[in-house]
Amino acid sequence: MTDTSIRTYSNEREEESEETTERSAEQEQCPECGGRLISDAEHAETVCSECGLVVEEGEIDRGPEWRAFDAAEKDEKSRVGAPTTNMMHDQGLSTNIGWQDKDAYGKSLSSRQRQKMQRLRTWNERFRTRDSKERNLKQALGEIDRMASALGLPENVRETASVIYRRALEEDLLPGRSIEGVATSSLYASARQAGTPRSLDEISAVSRVDKMELTRTYRYVIRELGLEVQPADPESYVPRFVSDLDLSDETERMARELLDSARKEGVHSGKSPVGLAAAGVYAAALLTNEKVTQNEVSEVASISEVTIRNRYKELLEASETAAPA
């Protein structure tokens, strides 16, 4: 580039800058008297402070639609930022540095920058878990999320399980019990409260604790926290079993009718809800002429074929007894 072209380009930039300055000055001055313009947010107008001329009106109010009279009320009503969640030990309020060693444009970082980012990640993790209680909570909530994903449980169940575990931690129920045991018990109780129960065998299959420890810890947690957990309804297992076996809606409806008849006849008392649900699905499949074996049902429900045969006969007897009435 020659000296002449450089001077020409510089002059053009100066002229553009002067024009921009003049336009901004014109916008800040009254077109009638040259006075200073002020914005009246209450009336959504821009007026002259000298002569009172309304230069603009009907301006858009870009502020919130609510009012707050103190800082606490403002924080409570504000909807800015990511929502807090009980599924993270810090409720999602801390900064998380991504693991990708790339900049904002997607380009890879240099070796020195990668080392710097790794040090920042290390210190960030240390600051996020400042004491043993937070480290405990982080491990437990991670375990709850892992098991819930393996069991296909929805987010509301994970949120409730996280709240139950936090309560157990605050009530000092963990001494003498493993973190995994209390976390698994919290998830089991949450699933039953939400009406999407999983059997003890299913829970223990994805947990790091055995079935006996899970049962013992679960009873202790619900007793100490005063949780109201209703007995599992066999009908709540039916949709999942029918879906896993790829059966029809008619079979699901028939299974519900069989279980309802059994409830009226008192067959449910003292019986495993999973066994009753599996037997109901198997019986309904036979009544609707759908091909399914006891072995297939037992694999889906994680119970023995003997249990299915025994409960299956009881359901059919209860259905025959209730039919004349």
From TrEMBL:
GO terms for biological process: transcription preinitiation complex assembly. Residues 1-31, 73-99 are annotated as: Disordered. It comes from the Archaea. Residues 83-98 have a biased composition (Polar residues). One of its GO terms (molecular function) is translation initiation factor activity. Residues 26-56 form the TFIIB-type domain. The keyword Zinc applies. Zn(2+) binds at residues 30, 33, 48, 51. Keywords: Initiation factor, Metal-binding, Protein biosynthesis, Repeat, Transcription, Transcription regulation, Zinc, Zinc-finger. One of its GO terms (cellular component) is transcription preinitiation complex. Sequence repeats lie at residues 142-225, 236-317. Stabilizes TBP binding to an archaeal box-A promoter. Also responsible for recruiting RNA polymerase II to the pre-initiation complex (DNA-TBP-TFIIB). Belongs to the TFIIB family. This is Transcription initiation factor IIB. The gene is tfb.
